[in-house]
Design goal:
- The structure holds 3 protein chains of 3 kinds.
- In chain A, the strands form 2 sheets. A 6-stranded mixed beta sheet of chain A has the order 6-7-8-3-9-10, with helices on both faces. Chain A has a 4-stranded antiparallel beta sheet with strand order 2-1-4-5, with helices on one face.
- Helices cover 41% and strands 21% of the residues of chain A.
- By secondary structure, chain A is of the alpha/beta class.
- Chain A is built from 14 helices and 10 strands.
- Chain A has helices spanning 2-8, 13-20, 67-73, 98-104, 121-125, 127-131, 136-150, 165-177, 195-212, 223-226, 246-251, 253-258, 265-275, 287-294; strands at residues 24-34, 40-51, 56-60, 82-87, 90-91, 105-108, 183-187, 215-220, 231-236, 239-244.
- By secondary structure, chain B is mainly alpha-helical.
- The relative contact order of chain B is 0.14.
- Chain C is of the alpha/beta class.
- Chain C is built from 12 helices and 10 strands.
- The relative contact order of chain C is 0.13.
- Classes of the chains: A alpha/beta, B mainly alpha, C alpha/beta.
- The A-C interface holds A 62-63, 164-165, 191-192, 194-197, 221-223, 260-262, 264-266, 268-269, 272-273, 276, 278, 287-288, 290-291, 294-295 and C 41-42, 148, 173-179, 203, 206, 243-245, 247-249, 251-252, 255-256, 259, 261, 270-271, 273-275, 277-278, 281-282.
Chain lengths: 295, 265, 308
């Protein structure tokens, strides 16, 4: 150990540290919401978790499992009642780190309307950079860049009410991208959208992860959407109940059902077919994959 | 007043659309007051000609402009009647105690005409300036007051957000109204008091969801790094161009011309 | 109640540059006690159609007949029929407004002019139907309840009207899988108990087959399909052309069919589709073996999900 320290002693601590450290680190996180009558609701009961740079994590669970509460700890909207959360080495509970944390972790919420503040698309996307007091010329560059990434550059001057739900969420994503975060957290971004809107949003964030290397944390209760992630975390009663690649998590059909979740129909069919003796490899998550394996 | 309703903006690329909102607002204010400050016939003709010229430059369809006059129909009738019955002069028609004079007739018509000019100028402003631009312009004009400590930027932000949500609220009111109607709410009641009461089931939910919206919006704003309106830069900054200065000069020239006509004739 | 939609046309903002014809001559019939699903992409005119069925809009052309009475009229006969149609918009919890749960659920019955005892009985019944305990919840302020509970209160507020026709616009929007299952189970129970006509707009393709017998597909203001649920939801080409999702089991079966498998494509539920695929797979593997002995164990039954 001493020899290693000697070898690396010339490397600045922060550089080496951030290379070793995961992007998000959570230790013993607990969160209790106080109630009006003096009692409390415990939403998180001790979560230990790390998320590496560039990972695409799906955080699933039924309502009340604590997934939304957990999400809000990732950018300092909530403070732990116990335990600690680090974002790129910054402790979220330290007030001096708050704005730095929020610049690194962008967030998109469930209701498309209740996130848009401006009367035109470009002005809304500019909101984040404006808050960082970035010079107007640079804001313009970032806004155009972000809109290009989500494919809405032509809608720059449109007012929000002329957009579909899916497009509004893409604007919200662009707004989060404009501060150049390393990570984007999306809290049930598709639950108020129609199927085309859902597809638009999921395709976009998938692309952000695979092409731009963005760390993505997607909170959802749709296992169909979770299929897209590399890693699925299942929450139950404020704790992490399962953690693994989608194909591993989907193996446990009974457990998922007991947790109030279901499996994508394709996975369900594959499972039943295996039960009937059809030799199928594991990890068949899409219609194409299953059809290919059968033929 | 319905004059500056957000819904009146029509996106287009006319000469007027391209002008700085501050110049337009200042000019509009001036042109609205002028007919009343310079009541002479020559002045009024000059102003009318200028307003007509602006209307042409705005690419607003004349029919749409004239339709906006409907909003002041009752006010116009009232003003006409007021002038008609209270202006002293040569009697024209007598209806018992009430006397209508020739002067009264003329005064009534002229007063209504001035009112119409006012409405048309305001409508031209609304047609050619989006609510967002108006908010930007207002914020820029009131900026000096911020140095004196008034919360100009915060109020501008409040205004922008309110404008953004106006269509959302209209849509929601429609939805809730239909939902309650489907439960027999009687929203088309005749008597005003009953009607007001019957609309409570629409306004209460809107009110409640408004608070929830505000809460969610505040959270989203916080997540995007908002910590107050002070230390913010803006994507869109208003810059006066040559066209703006030219327009301002033209308006001032018309005002000066009006003043001249008024006091030298 | 028999509902007939006769050449229904609806244009918003007619005569202005913003005119939009949402419904372009819809012909439909709903028999009493039917369970029908309505599908269509955003902008297909679904909402407009639902509002016409509840008599909330005036047709630009054509008519909606409720038991032979024109729905949009303001006559007592039309009003009486309209009261028999209960319509729940998306996110019905948004319409809750009263100071107590009781009063909110009682709103509808009171507007019907019923006596206090009858109103109270209906409120109690409706709350039980949505799975809430009347005694525990009647006196509570609705806004202190959870979102899911508020939705149930809103639905109770419509059930308390004892409608002959219940129209639900995406009743499971925003719910998690458990919530969805539970609510749709209740909806089915309501229909079975009261024999009301059920008209359901939903994107939950994996749930529809369990709930409805018939599906109508709208696109761009026109009816492009109207038939038994199995038939309509297994028509992949039609669904795709309308910009709708194809149920995963159906997509899978179509893919296999294209590859030469003799599978039926109208097995909409995962268990049925699995059963069908297994059946054909076994046939195929038997066919490629030279043994004549069947590999299927004795006494084995094909799993068949009974669709109500």
């Amino acid at each position: 150990m001493g020899a290693l320290n000697q070898v690396f002693s010339h490397v600045p601590e922060s550089g080496l540290a951030s290379m070793k450290k995961p992007f998000i680190e959570i230790q013993g996180l607990e969160h209790a919401y106080p109630l009006a009558d003096g009692g409390q609701i415990v939403a998180l009961r001790g979560v230990d978790l790390t998320v590496e740079r560039g990972e695409f994590v799906a955080l699933v669970g039924s309502n009340g499992s604590g997934k939304s509460t957990l999400a809000r700890h990732l950018n300092g909207l909530l403070m732990p009642t116990a335990g600690r959360v680090w974002v790129e080495g910054l402790l979220t509970a330290d007030p001096r780190n708050l704005w730095a944390v929020r610049q690194r972790v962008g967030m998109v919420f469930q209701n498309p309307d209740n996130q848009l503040v401006a009367s035109t698309v470009e002005e809304d996307v500019a909101f984040g950079p404006e808050n960082l007091a970035i010079p107007p010329g640079e804001i313009r560059r970032r806004v155009d860049e972000a809109l290009q990434v989500v494919g809405l550059l032509d809608y720059r001057t449109h007012p929000p009410q002329m957009l579909s739900g899916g497009q509004k969420q893409l604007v919200a994503i662009a707004g989060a991208l404009a501060t150049r975060p390393a990570c984007i957290v999306l809290d049930e971004p598709t639950s108020m959208l129609d199927p085309p809107g859902r597809r638009q949003v999921i395709e976009t964030i998938h692309r952000l992860n695979t092409q731009e290397g963005m760390t993505v944390v997607l909170i959802t209760h749709s296992m169909d959407e979770a299929t897209v992630a590399q890693r699925v975390l299942v929450m139950d009663g404020g704790r992490v109940a399962m953690d693994g690649p989608p194909e591993h998590v989907f193996e446990h059909g009974e457990r998922l059902r007991a947790l109030g979740l279901d499996r994508p129909p394709t996975v369900e069919i594959a499972h039943r077919l295996r039960g009937r003796g059809v030799p199928l490899p594991p990890g068949l998550l899409t219609v194409e994959a299953l059809a290919g394996a059968l033929c | 007043m319905n004059l500056l309703l957000p819904g009146m903006y029509v996106a287009a690329d006319s000469t007027l659309h391209r002008l700085d909102p501050r110049v337009k607002m200042g000019a509009a204010l001036l042109l609205m007051v002028l007919p009343f400050a310079a009541p002479g016939l020559a002045s009024t003709l000059l102003i009318s000609a200028f307003v007509a010229a602006i209307a042409i430059l705005s690419a607003a369809p004349p029919s749409a402009l004239l339709r906006t006059l409907r909003t002041i129909f009752w006010l116009g009738c009232f003003m006409f009647a007021f002038r008609l019955f209270t202006t002293p002069g040569q009697p024209f028609v007598a209806l018992g105690e009430v006397v209508v004079t020739r002067e009264g007739l003329l005064a009534g018509v002229v007063q209504v005409y001035r009112l119409c000019l006012l409405v048309i100028v305001a409508s031209l402003l609304s047609f050619t300036t989006s609510p967002a631009q108006l908010a930007h312009g207002l914020e820029a004009l009131l900026e000096p007051l911020a140095r004196v400590g008034l919360p100009v930027r915060e109020l501008a932000m409040v205004l922008t957000i309110a404008l953004r949500f106006v269509p959302v609220f209209f849509a929601e009111i429609e939805k809730i109204a239909k939902a309650q109607q489907a439960r027999g709410a009687g929203l088309h009641a005749r008597r005003p008091w009953r009607r007001l009461r019957n609309w409570v089931p629409v306004f209460v939910p809107i009110f409640v969801t408004a608070f929830r919206r505000a809460d969610e919006l505040a959270t989203a704003m916080e997540a995007r790094g908002f910590r107050g309106a002070r230390r913010r830069t803006r994507l869109i900054e208003l810059h006066l161009t040559r066209h703006d200065l030219l327009a301002a000069l033209v308006v001032l020239a018309v005002a000066a011309g009006t003043w001249t006509l008024e006091h030298l004739m | 109640m028999l509902i007939q939609v006769e050449n229904l046309v609806h244009t918003y903002a007619p005569g202005t540059p913003l005119a939009h014809t949402a419904l372009q001559g819809i012909e439909l019939k709903f028999d009493p006690g039917e369970r029908v699903g309505i599908l269509g992409p955003t902008g297909s005119g679904k909402s407009t159609l639902l509002q016409h069925l509840a008599g909330l809009l005036e047709p630009t052309g054509g008519r909606v007949w409720l038991d032979g009475v024109a729905a949009h009229e303001r006559t007592p006969a039309a009003r009486a029929r309209k009261r028999q149609v209960g319509l729940a918009f998306q996110y019905p919890e948004d319409q809750v407004f009263e100071q107590t749960v009781f009063r909110d659920v009682a709103f509808g019955p009171r507007n019907l002019g019923l006596k206090d005892a009858e109103v109270a009985a209906r409120v109690r019944w409706a709350l039980e139907m949505v799975g809430l305990d009347p005694a525990a919840v009647e006196g509570r302020v609705p806004f202190t309840l959870s979102g899911g509970e508020m939705r149930r209160v809103a639905l109770a507020g419509i059930l308390s009207l004892h409608p002959e026709v219940l129209i639900l616009d995406e009743p499971t929007a925003g719910l998690d899988p458990r919530g969805r299952r539970e609510l749709l189970g209740r909806v089915l129970a309501w229909q079975q108990q009261t024999h009301m006509t059920l008209i359901l707009v939903s994107h939950a393709l994996d749930e529809l087959p369990r709930l409805v017998e018939r599906v109508v597909v709208l696109n761009k203001g026109q009816v492009i399909a109207d038939g038994p649920v199995r038939q309509v939801l297994s028509d992949g080409a039609l669904l795709r052309a309308a910009g709708l999702d194809v149920p995963q089991p159906v997509a899978l079966l179509h893919a296999l069919q294209k590859a030469g498998w003799a599978v039926r494509t109208d097995r909409l539920l995962p268990e049925e589709a699995a059963g069908e695929i297994a059946r054909v797979w076994e046939q195929r593997s038997r066919g490629t073996r030279h043994r004549s002995v069947s590999k299927v164990p004795r006494g084995h039954r094909e799993p068949e999900e009974d669709i109500p």
